Amino acid sequence: MERFFSPGDATDSSVDAMKAPLAQFVTRFLGDVFTYLHKRGNAANPGAIPKCVIESLIQCRKIQMERNGEPIVVLSHSMGGQIMYDVITHFLPEMPELEDIRVDF
Question: How far, in Å, are 4, 8, 61, 97 from residue 12 at the CA level?
């Protein structure tokens, strides 16, 4: 059992134990973010991920119209939420053919 001589010793020990797992998590998460941003494209030429989301929203819009305006509701988590927000706020406003798509979170 480790003995601590001051509150700082306990903090140092706790922080040391978390460094490797935290560094791995942050590196992976930020890597995903930077990869997405690097490959996201723009409204005129969306990257693979935004293009897939946009195509799905177009399909949802068609179904919405068939169902008398039933809302499009998106449930998202973590990076998926960031991607959806990016598509809705950056891509859709620049694409006049999609201006009537509305999404509820």
Answer: 10, 6, 54, 56
